[in-house]
Amino acid sequence: MIIKDGIEIKLSPLHKISNYLIEGLSGLGLIAIFLGVWQIGSEFSGSFILPAPLDVLKRSFELITSSNSQISLTIYRTAISIVLAFIIGWVLGVIAGSFKTLAKIFKPLMDIFLAMPPIIWIVLALFWFEFGDMSVIFTVFIAIFPLSFANSMLSVITLDNRLNEVCIAYRLNLIKRLKAYYLPHILPYLLNSLNIITAMGVKIAIMAELLGASDGVGAKIADARAYLDTTEVLAYVVIMIGIILLFNFLVIKPINIIFLPWIKEN
Asked: Phi/psi zone of residue 201: left (φ > 0), alpha (ψ -120 to 50 degrees), beta?
């Protein structure tokens, strides 16, 4: 927000995104400090225990540019699982949140699913689907689906009925009601859910590939562990963390700035 001569000047969405990208550069200072601490730790512990950050970054670049790194396969499996869990979870969550009886029925079931450790789903998926794509996709989907469902149901349950009565009193049509009443309340839950299930999905996909697949980033990490290649293990970790941060930086935050500017201002 810019105030000139006591008058608030509203910025365009493009201007806000530009400001956001510039602000993001300030995070590079923290990354530099982290790399410095990492370098000191590497010199004290040795390259086998903790490889130098420059070596890890070089290996990360080699893996990104290599056709044998199988990063795209892991992203493909994770993307399918996340899209399915997000869409199905939100549709069922909206339905459950609209009817209190359904919400009471589904809540204990979702609590059980949320309490279930992902490792259990990995073992069950191996029995049901054996090694391969289906085993990984199922494990990721079933582990993140309850999060999407719970966020969706909560967003509908917490809608303010008094605002709905105002919309009815002013006879707003469906489009105006969506814009003024439903979206401002539901969209933060939706974005928060997408952010969480993306981070969780990547982590669980790697774990599922490590234990239940012969290819993908998880399997590559298992191979590196067998060869005691700590540099390659950390290189894959850096790449996957970078993918999660880029998704948040380039997708979630810009949507927040455009559609929920008051959250940024607060």
From this structure: alpha
Residues forming beta bridges with residue 7, ordered by sequence position: 4
Exposure string of 220-231, with b = 16+ CB inside 10 Å and e = fewer, is bbbebeeeebbb
Q: 2 φ, ψ to 5°?
A: -115, 130
> How close are the terminal C-alpha atoms of the chain, in Å?
11
Query: What are phi and psi for residue 124, nearest 5 degrees?
Result: -65, -40
What tens digit of pLDDT does each residue of 138-168 get?
999 999 999 899 888 888 888 887 877 777 7
3-class secondary-structure state, position 8:
strand
- Structure token pair of residue 22: 């510039």
pLDDT tens readout for residues 220-248 = 998 888 888 899 999 999 998 888 888 88
Beta strands 7-9 and 2-4, pairing class = antiparallel
Which one, of 190, 18, 20, lies nearest residue 89 by Cα? 190
Burial (0-12, 13-18, 19+ Cβ within 10 Å), 5: exposed
**pTM score, two decimals?**
0.79
- The burial of 3, by beta-carbon neighbours within 10 Å (0-12 exposed, 13-18 middle, 19 or more buried), is given as exposed
